[in-house]
Design brief:
Largest sheet: 2 strands, antiparallel
Order of helices and strands: EEHH
Shape: elongated
Oligomer: single chain
Helix content: 25-40%
Low-confidence stretches: none
Distance between the termini: 28 Å
Number of helices: 2
Structural class: alpha+beta
Length: 71
């Protein structure tokens, strides 16, 4: 996306490829957060949210469904 009014772009995304270790998750995870703030403070929050989601997803047991993992 493009920043409006010359403000910094506060969006954040992450991509993680499947874990190749035995018993690891075999899905590709992509997460995107739209950082919207009037004072330019959204970037740390969007970054932490996306990285936390990706980290938590891959920490869940591989036997769990995607829905169960993300709930």
């Amino acid at each position: 996306s493009r920043p409006a009014s010359g403000k910094a772009n506060e969006d954040f995304y992450a991509l993680r490829l499947p874990d190749v270790s035995p018993g690891g998750r075999c899905e590709i995870a992509i997460a995107l957060a739209d950082g919207m703030s009037s004072d330019g403070s959204a970037r740390p929050v969007t970054e932490a949210t996306v990285l936390g989601l990706i980290s938590d997803y891959y920490a869940a047991p591989a036997q769990w469904s995607v829905a169960q993992t993300l709930s």
